[in-house]
Amino acid sequence: MEKTVLLVEDEPDVVDLLRFHLRRARFKVLVATTGAEGLASIRSERPDLVILDIMLPGMSGIEVCRALRTDPQTATIPVLMLTAKGEAADRVKGLETGADDYVTKPFSPKEVVLRAQGLLRRQQSASEQAALVDFDGISLDKDNLVARVDGERMELTTTEFRLLTAFINNRSKTLTRDMLLRDVWGYASSADSRTVDTHMRRLREKLGSHAHRLETIRGEGYRLKPKPGGPE
Ligand code: CA
Fold this sequence. Notes:
The protein is built from 8 helices and 12 strands. By secondary structure, the chain is α/β, with parallel strands linked by helices. Bound molecules: calcium ion.
């Protein structure tokens, strides 16, 4: 599935260079040019990874990272920090505030792409290993194939369980019908997308009081939203 990287950097040359290389590595790239804009985008877009420059106008990368880590909704997003050459203090501070890795400027864009891919692989295997996951009251026990909503067991078919797993693994992200057909049903090409709609309708009914969280995004697909009133 295509991963989204948010690049928070104010230097246009660096943005252009990294955007080019990240896109070539099949990332979807979002850009923010100030710390405040970056944080807003992290909260609204929930990117899979953030590449964060330390030196930003206004709010610094360090402050952005700290804010991201203290919000439970964004706390697990991997952060790759860009630090200036020779600023060892920046590196230490960056890692202390919760950056997962850092690259020192001037860097090779290929190195940044490799680090980004490495962080995402680590994140992926960590989330796959977690057999018990909960997303605001909807929980999955992947070992025993049991799903619960507010602690109550749901009777799901295998396909519904796989669908729900896809939404929990990609919380708050829009999944297209094609993505679901590929990842849940294993279809290489887009088959009849009504298959997806039918299963989604049944899954939504089974979610009971959480049904409204499974949103239809017109012309795009579906997404599972956080519970309203959560720490957003
Ligand atoms: Ca900068």
